[in-house]
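Quick question: what would this complex look like in 3D?
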Amino acid sequence: MLNYIQADLYRLFHKKSNYIFYGVLFAAFIALVTWTYTAFEQGEGFTNGFVELAGILLTQLFPLVFGVQAYSTVFLNDVSSNSYQNIFSSGLSKVEFVLSKLMIMFTYMLITFLSGIVVYLGFYGVLLLLEGGEIYYEGFQKVAVMTFNVFLGLIGYAMVASVVAFFTQNTTISLITFVALISNMVLTILNLASLATDKLEFLREYTLSYHLSESNNTLFTQLLVPDSGFTMPFETWGVTLIYIVVASVLGILVLNKVEIKEGK
Amino acid sequence: MENLIETVNLTKRYNRSVALDDVSIHVRQGEIYGLIGKNGAGKSTLFKTMMGLAPKTSGEIKLFGETSSSGLDHARQRMGFMMGASFFPYLSASENLEYFRRLKGISDKNEVHRVLKLVEMDSVKKPFKSFSLGMKQRVSIANALMGYPDVIVLDEPINGLDPQGIADFRRIVQKLNKENKITFLISSHILGELELMATRFGFIHDGKLIEELNRETVRKKTEEKVLVKTDDPKKAAYLLEQQFDGVEYIINGDKELVVSKMTDQSDEIAKLMVTNDLKLYKLITQEISIQDYYLNLIAKGGTQRA
């Protein structure tokens, strides 16, 4: 299992287009923050706004921009290149494969996210020095919790979508599934259905989107309102972990049942 | 001799169609086993089932004597496998093989270079997506060879290779088999090439393994013959013995004499018969290739089971 994790991380960090993607992403991030800097007053207000912006980006844009790339690179490159046949014929078991993918997704996101934090904090430090502002510790603490919330949610969605990837071995269908999940489409459909009938309303609470949205909203409010309380979304994290465990088991069962598509 | 790969009544069904029908294959240590069959005969399905890429419907797979799921996974770590040429398009040949070196837990970092050199791909730096079919095939062969596995399973390995590439491939297989005692299981529909390499053959048709023969038996069954139909085959045999040293023949019924080899001396045989007042009804030379043998076998309906 460790061999596979090591091999896949080698692949991910030798994919040159990843570096281009993250270069552009970080540059866009800095450009956006610079634009926000001009929209806020200098001093403490400026630094707080800067931290809040990071929180907004994390909850609203991060899953779409970063999540899709991470899911696609970690899970779908194997499918599009028909590499499953070489991977599984090497003697790697399906259990090892699914658990490894979970670890790889986590590690890949962590490394790229930490890289983003370095860029962000570096820029933040420069602005603090220039403007003589103070470090907004409380804001950072809240953003860190929001980050973990988003982070865990993305892994949960990725593991659920990976079951579709294993079953169909089709990149388009799998990617659409992932995008639908992170766009809260299931929750939206259930919300719309609840306008017509209340019989399906109970299902909302079983969706991952429901719990993630709830905790995101709570954290977001806490971030924007100074001196507000600080609640850790442990329940959401628990639900997400259950999703990850169930999706992993399903993934293993599916891989044991399906036939691996042949390469060209 | 020990069977490294064995299947017992292996069956694979897709809804109503049967892709593998009670296949019992035996690949022994040190062999180059040639699996012969036309497209759709079941060769790739057999390999996929064997290598854990497709679930079997029934029957048993034994790899190095292991039959349990975890045992089979463990056994597959001692095997090299090639089916098509599927690698990450954005990585180079050496990066792709480095990925599989790490996955297979091969500690020797020079292994990638060694196998790429064997297939003459060590100097190619461009990404896999820009490779020609032959180059992709070479990388795939190199991947299967990596780490000196005990058994290498190759599905249609010479597809896309140029004549020089095919000759090089044959040389590599024979060298590894002889010097490193690596067992090979190779499928191909290019039978002439398999004929040059394999030490044992399995003939598969419509999902059934019709026959398993060693090279010597195949040679005997496909060797050149002169078929003589005459009124007195015993006398004809006596005349042949007198005329040619070490002649090999069999008398087939009361009219037919089958002479081994000697196809280049058929004129002399005919002359010998006629000058000795034998009635010569028919004299034909037969040169059966392994392809003809396979075609004859399946024309019989594949009734001869291994």
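Answer marked as accepted. The first strand of chain B starts at residue 3 and ends at 14.
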